[in-house]
Amino acid sequence: MASRMGEEEKVLKDPVHGYVYIHDPLFWDLVNTREVQRLRRIRQLGTTYLTYPGGEHSRFSHALGTYEVLRRILQAFGRNGYPVEPDWARLVMAAGLLHDIGHGPFSHALEPLWGPSHEAWGERILLDPATEVHQVLAAVAPAFPGEVADVVMKRHPNRLAVSMVSGQLDADRLDYLMRDSIFTGVDYGKFDLARILRVILPLGDRLVVKRTGIHTVEAYLLARYFMYWQVYLHPVCRSGEILLRKILWRARDLTRAGRRPAAPHPALAAWLEGDALDLDGYLALDDAVVQCAIGLWQDDADPVLRDLARRLMDRRLFKYAEFPPDQDPRLYGRLEHLARERGYDPAYYLEVDATSAVYYDYYVGDEGPAGRDGALYLWDGRTLVEMSRLSRPIQGIARERQSERRVYFPESIAAEAERILGGRG
Description:
By secondary structure, the protein is an alpha+beta fold. Helices cover 49% and strands 11% of the residues. The chain is built from 20 helices and 9 strands.
């Protein structure tokens, strides 16, 4: 992976890893494509900044961080006597750098609105000959864009490459847990990354952990557990996401009714009209376009769109209450009646939100360590043991699907809504 003649390595300062080192010109060329630079304009955590003010970081910094974690993992393999083939290392690092290239405005918060998943959009970006990313990858070899896409889409035959980018102990999670923890100001996502790099090894097509590293990986898995419930699925963070989606759905419903609100970009206007986005249109959308639209809509003639937009701009989020699955189904109808009585259309001012997460999902059959890719295995130089068999903390979260249901509504009806839900109204 030598540099081009006369070209120095690039060193980028990073608050998580200290520095990101780019030795290979391929990666510098990829970083400077318009599709990767677009990630600067997409927040990593959607509307989480409304709950944690520091959570303003971008998908771009996370992409660089994922690349850097992979670079360090591959270096550690070599130091520990497991050298990797340069072209294979290039493939893995390229996939890590580009794994989130398909994200749209506000990341996961608005993903359901744009049609295909962000992974599917990413594959289109990687494979479309018109994109700069594709052209840089194809300059390596005509088949290289497809190989990178196969790793990102988890279908590449080299399972080790896939698991290093998207697995139980992958570079993606190793970066975003620490990055999101630092920027939101919480301590839940912190763990000893340097130690993890010392205790993970490639064993055939599997990434394994030295037996002595069990407690370090326990800390990592518990960090993931706490980050989900304290940040990613935090009820106030979810309230911001719900409000953001309600705004866009109201704007689209108005358009279908024949009165399209102002749109700052043709791509957003086309989406409001109900058109499926093409790749150029999707790439034109970012947080700035959506925020500009919401800024315009806070003065729209439609009272619902105007009110929803102002609520987001001024951080007047919906309140929430627990709504367990065993609640009397008639309660929601009573909440709808309350909302209408107070002048709120339930379609835009009421929502039941169900959240769930699995923190460590595994399967080990009679054949021992031939289970699903999700399992983590400890290696003592002779035998493999699935990690939850030796770890009580991991046993506690293994296969657990923790679920919560909440109902969201405007603050002005919160007292009455809580009385209904408590059986007192």
